[in-house]
């Protein structure tokens, strides 16, 4: 049941927290620090099952990253979950328009995170 | 460690970095040099601090960061112009955020109401514009969610059975959602019967691969909470038609033609073949300044680095030992071996430097703390101060950087409090009302030099001298050079009391600065011109791990004297040595008399040379206490030594800086010249002055 | 006490015992890093006589304490037959100069008695208790207290 999940976030704290929750549930975690890095990692990791990405990042933000994945990569069918906060409904929608599959509201608890993954990935 | 606890540590570390980045960006904004990426970086920093803070439940921090972030969002979207007064508020907000982080880390309360309301005022001023611009986004897609939420309050008579009609649209698949997974998710809520409705599927020829034709009729039994059903479809709201209605208790079970979800679900034909929309507005290269290559770094546990440093140190010692042994043999073949050893020494030095460099960091992290300090001091003193930072990228050993903060803070306080004049005073003196303080760092001949200079009034030497006499630090008739007078301000017990304010005069004098710098193996230089300003420089070693030393013998013991303190070595004639007072001795060095002390006597070593004329004298210079002649038995050589502290296993010993291991494997002590000299000097100064005056 | 329960989970601890002036002392085996022969030390200035100086322990500068002198039993005339017990206690690593290591003892807590009041107070400070086994009396020393006392300014300065 373990999936390979790519997390894209410029915050080390957030990357660590995601990794803790995900690997605790038996998933393999691949990390990237921003959108550009995410694209690179994705190109090198064909087996990614789910992508979790932050919005606000240097070099290439979450929107750009999602659009790139949906349009340009071999992962256009890969589910993408966006990390947002409660106060950002507009961002959520913009991410959806860019092609995000769903979202995770920060701060998340592991259960919410895993439920979101279950809803987008077999 | 609890993994969450260790992530919390990471969070605080990251906060420090983010706060620095934020400060840097805000200062760029203040100077009108911030481009959109710089403003974005500030926003991201605050956003990330908030995000992590939320995860650890730092509510007051999060609530403040949120208000701050909102204003920054307006700035980056261009609805709020970063004019001077706006940036001023942002800088204060940055300081307050730093306080919040500190409070989250080590407890405490941050009064942020004032800054918060100033921030709110900024975002409210733009509120109308904002609501206008964001309304269309909100209105577009978000409304359906609200309607669904309304529904959750309705049917009270439900027995937990629901009829759901789910009609996915093409967009649902384009975003990689899968109806099958949603239906599967429903099975966690109760018993599910799902029937695919294929009635809309056209003939193969008419089939548009991007279109969605399949829909689902679902009954869900045994789920009391409507909200949970809504949650399952949360991601696809807007990309499907969704009807959820409660089945009345009396209603019979629906039609039997079912597919049980766990076994076999008909997947839509479109799956996996979603075509990309043709527009390619964005690509990797196009998305804003992405070309700037990020420098590759790795994080390494400091212990690992220190282990490496130690090992290389050992290697250097072993090499020195081998060299010594070979020299001792000095045979014909010895020459070839010596050549090889010299080569080895050369390589080892390079290796050592490379390893030491791992421990270095830019001084930026300390320098970046100073703008805030300057702002606060300027506000407290009503002075106008412009701070200039130079050479922030200069790299120094991590430990030096960590211990540089306090002395620098002191010197900046001193420059603003005592150095710079009030604006009207400055104007009267023909200077601009705004004073300038320059903090700079640079590498100079293997050491780092950090300078704090100001264009203020300079050191008032008459006043300093007068104070020193009043405090009993010098006698009234003592003839001191300008340099010696300047150095008085670093003496313990000295403070220009007439000017004590609540800033510099915190009961801590500049003597603490001197001690801090000396402990780091550095020295302080002072330059000052009346009316023009002062310049204080700290000359520090690049690393605390090695030092160049002179090896001397005293009795049966070997000591290391730091070369940085040595002026010269002399072979004194008996006629140059004069007894003085009860115990004192003076040495005539080319006509000037310098106090002389015997290292053997000082450290209680017996069996050495008792007549200084039979031994060697090392002329040393110490910070603050001037020149002194140290009598030893003889000089063994000069060598770079690896500094080994024994304080952690034992304790500090006065007059001893640390230890090292020599080529023969034995421990030798490194003398703390400043400590030794000032100790002797304090004890004897008075006695000598009386004698000089008499 | 600074010892921990041994691996079997019973309340028994192992001690290395050593001789100093004919008396037998014990140190918790968990605190002991190694035992090595005596090597000439580098003297430290301004320290009490029981601090014999420092030695190079594979790159670490290790202070060596004359245990006998520390306990007020007189200076040890160190020879090649004497040993240095390297102790890890708290944050410190220190060497203890003793005559010889004699034994490894397993002692259960019930066999440990409190220190009688009459024992020399200088020694008493570092004693955890006294173990009596088959007529032998072993004074169990607290390595932590012994090592920690080195960092205290007290004791050193007055003797300096």
Q: Which sequence of SSEs, written as H and E, runs from N to C of chain C?
A: EEEEEHEEEEHEEHH
Largest sheet of chain C: 6 strands, mixed
Task: Tell the overall outline of chain B.
Answer: elongated
Mean pLDDT of chain C: 80
Characterize the main sheet of chain B.
6 strands, mixed
Spans of at least 5 consecutive residues with low confidence of chain C: 1-9, 153-160
Strand content of chain B: 15-25%
What kind of assembly state do the chains in view correspond to? heterotrimer
Helicity level of chain C, as a percent range? 10-25%
CATH-defined architecture of the largest domain in chain B? 2-Layer Sandwich
The CATH architecture name of chain C reads Beta Barrel
The CATH homologous superfamily of chain C is named CheA-289, Domain 4
Count structural domains of chain B. 5
Assign an overall shape of chain C.
globular
Q: What name does CATH use for the topology of chain C?
A: OB fold (Dihydrolipoamide Acetyltransferase, E2P)
Describe it.
- The complex is a heterotrimer of chains A (122), B (694) and C (160).
- With 122 residues, chain A is of the alpha/beta class.
- Chain A contains five helices and five strands, in the order E-H-E-H-E-H-E-H-E-H.
- In chain A, strands 2-1-3-4-5 form a five-stranded parallel sheet, with helices on both faces.
- The longest helix of chain A has 13 residues.
- With 694 residues, chain B is α+β, with helices and mostly antiparallel strands.
- Helix content of chain B is 43%, strand content 21%.
- Chain B contains 22 helices and 22 strands.
- In chain B, helix 1 runs antiparallel to helix 4, helix 3 runs antiparallel to helix 4 and helix 14 runs parallel beside helix 16.
- Chain C has a single domain, classed as OB fold (Dihydrolipoamide Acetyltransferase, E2P), CATH 2.40.50.180.
- The relative contact order of chain C is 0.23.
- Chain C is of the alpha+beta class.
- Helices cover 15% and strands 46% of the residues of chain C.
- The interface between A and B is large, with 53 and 58 residues.
């Amino acid at each position: 049941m373990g999936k390979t999940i790519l997390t894209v976030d410029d915050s080390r704290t957030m990357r660590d927290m995601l990794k803790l929750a995900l690997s605790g549930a038996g998933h393999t975690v691949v990390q990237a620090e921003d959108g550009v890095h995410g694209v690179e990692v994705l190109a090198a990791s064909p087996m990614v099952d789910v992508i979790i990405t932050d919005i606000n990042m240097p070099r290439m933000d979450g929107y750009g990253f999602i659009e790139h994945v949906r349009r340009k990569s071999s992962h256009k069918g890969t589910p993408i979950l966006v990390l947002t906060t409660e106060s950002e409904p507009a961002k959520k929608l913009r991410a959806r328009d860019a092609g995000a599959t769903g979202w995770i509201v920060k701060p998340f608890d592991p259960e919410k995170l895993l439920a979101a993954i279950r809803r987008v990935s077999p | 460690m609890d993994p969450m606890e260790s992530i919390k540590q990471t969070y605080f570390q990251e906060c420090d970095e983010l706060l620095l980045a934020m400060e840097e960006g805000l200062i760029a904004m203040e100077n009108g040099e911030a481009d959109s990426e710089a403003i974005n970086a500030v926003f991201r920093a605050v956003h990330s601090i908030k995000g992590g803070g939320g995860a650890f439940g730092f509510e007051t921090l999060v609530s403040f960061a949120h208000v701050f972030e909102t204003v920054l969002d307006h700035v980056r979207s261009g609805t709020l112009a970063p004019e001077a007064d706006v940036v001023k508020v942002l800088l204060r907000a940055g300081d307050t955020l730093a306080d919040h982080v500190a409070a989250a880390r080590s407890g405490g309360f941050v009064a942020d109401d004032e800054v918060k309301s100033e921030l709110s005022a900024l975002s409210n001023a733009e509120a109308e514009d904002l609501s206008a611009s964001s309304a269309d986004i909100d209105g577009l897609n978000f409304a359906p969610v609200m309607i669904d939420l309304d529904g959750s309050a309705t049917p009270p008579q439900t027995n937990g059975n629901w009829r759901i009609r789910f009609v996915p649209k093409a967009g649902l698949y384009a975003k990689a959602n899968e109806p099958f997974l949603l239906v599967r998710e429903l099975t966690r809520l109760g018993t599910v019967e799902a029937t695919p409705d294929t009635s809309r599927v056209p003939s193969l020829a008419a089939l548009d691969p991007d279109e969605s034709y399949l829909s689902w009729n679902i009954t869900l039994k045994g789920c009391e909470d409507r909200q949970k059903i809504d949650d399952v479809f949360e991601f696809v709201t807007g990309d499907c038609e969704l009807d959820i209605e409660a089945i009345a208790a009396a209603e019979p079970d629906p039609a039997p033609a079912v597919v049980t979800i766990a076994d076999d679900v008909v997947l839509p034909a479109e799956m996996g073949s979603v075509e990309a929309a043709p527009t390619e507005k964005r690509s990797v290269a196009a998305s804003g300044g992405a070309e700037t290559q990020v420098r590759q770094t790795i994080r390494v546990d400091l212990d690992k680095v220190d282990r490496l440093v130690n090992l290389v140190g050992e290697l250097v010692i072993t090499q020195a030992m081998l060299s010594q042994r070979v020299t001792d043999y000095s045979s014909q073949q010895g020459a070839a071996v010596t050549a090889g050893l010299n080569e080895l020494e050369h390589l080892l030095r390079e290796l050592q430097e490379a390893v030491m460099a791992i421990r270095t960091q830019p001084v930026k992290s300390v320098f970046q703390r100073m703008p805030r300090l300057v702002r606060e001091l300027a506000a407290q003193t009503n002075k106008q101060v412009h701070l200039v930072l130079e050479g922030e990228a200069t790299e120094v050993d991590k430990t030096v950087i960590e211990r540089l903060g306090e002395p620098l803070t002191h010197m900046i306080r001193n420059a603003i409090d005592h150095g710079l004049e009030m604006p009207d005073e400055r104007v009267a003196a023909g200077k601009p009302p705004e004073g300038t303080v320059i903090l700079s760092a640079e590498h100079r001949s293997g050491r780092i030099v950090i300078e704090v200079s100001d264009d203020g009034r300079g050191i008032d030497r008459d006043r300093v001298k007068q104070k020193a006499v009043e405090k009993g630090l010098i006698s009234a008739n003592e003839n001191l050079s300008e340099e010696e007078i300047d150095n008085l301000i670093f003496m313990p017990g000295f403070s220009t009391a007439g000017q004590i304010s609540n800033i510099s005069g915190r009961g801590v004098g500049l003597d603490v600065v001197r001690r801090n710098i000396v402990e780091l193996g550095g020295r302080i230089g002072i330059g000052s011109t009346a009316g023009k300003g002062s310049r204080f420089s700290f000359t520090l070693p690049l690393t605390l791990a090695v030092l160049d030393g002179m090896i001397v013998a005293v009795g049966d013991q070997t000591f290391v004297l730091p070369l940085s303190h040595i002026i010269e070595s002399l072979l004194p004639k008996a006629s140059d040595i004069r007894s003085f007072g009860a115990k004192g001795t003076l040495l005539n060095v080319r006509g000037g008399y310098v106090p002389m002390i015997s290292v053997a006597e000082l450290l209680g070593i017996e069996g050495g040379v008792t007549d200084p004329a039979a031994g060697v004298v090392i002329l040393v210079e110490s910070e603050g206490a001037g020149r002194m002649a140290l009598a030893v038995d003889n000089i063994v050589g000069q060598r770079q030594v690896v500094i080994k502290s024994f304080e952690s296993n034992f304790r500090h010993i006065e007059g001893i800086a640390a230890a090292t291991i020599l080529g023969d494997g034995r421990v030798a002590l490194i003398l703390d010249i400043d400590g030794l000299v000032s100790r002797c000097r304090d004890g004897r100064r008075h006695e000598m002055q009386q004698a000089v005056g008499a | 006490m600074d010892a921990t329960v041994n691996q079997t989970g019973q309340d028994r601890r192992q001690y290395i015992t050593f001789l100093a002036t004919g008396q037998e002392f014990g140190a918790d085996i968990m605190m002991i890093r190694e035992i090595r022969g005596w090597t000439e030390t580098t003297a430290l200035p301004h320290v009490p006589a029981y601090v014999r100086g420092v030695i190079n322990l594979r790159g670490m500068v290790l202070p060596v304490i004359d245990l006998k002198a520390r306990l007020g039993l007189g200076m040890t005339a160190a020879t090649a037959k004497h040993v240095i017990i390297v102790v890890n206690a708290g944050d410190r690593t220190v060497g203890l100069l003793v005559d010889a290591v004699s034994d490894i003892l397993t002692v259960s807590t019930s066999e440990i008695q409190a220190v009688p009041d009459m024992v020399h107070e200088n020694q008493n400070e570092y004693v955890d208790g006294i173990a009596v086994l088959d007529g032998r009396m072993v004074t169990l020393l607290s390595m932590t207290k012994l090592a920690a006392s080195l960092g205290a300014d007290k004791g050193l300065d007055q003797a300096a």
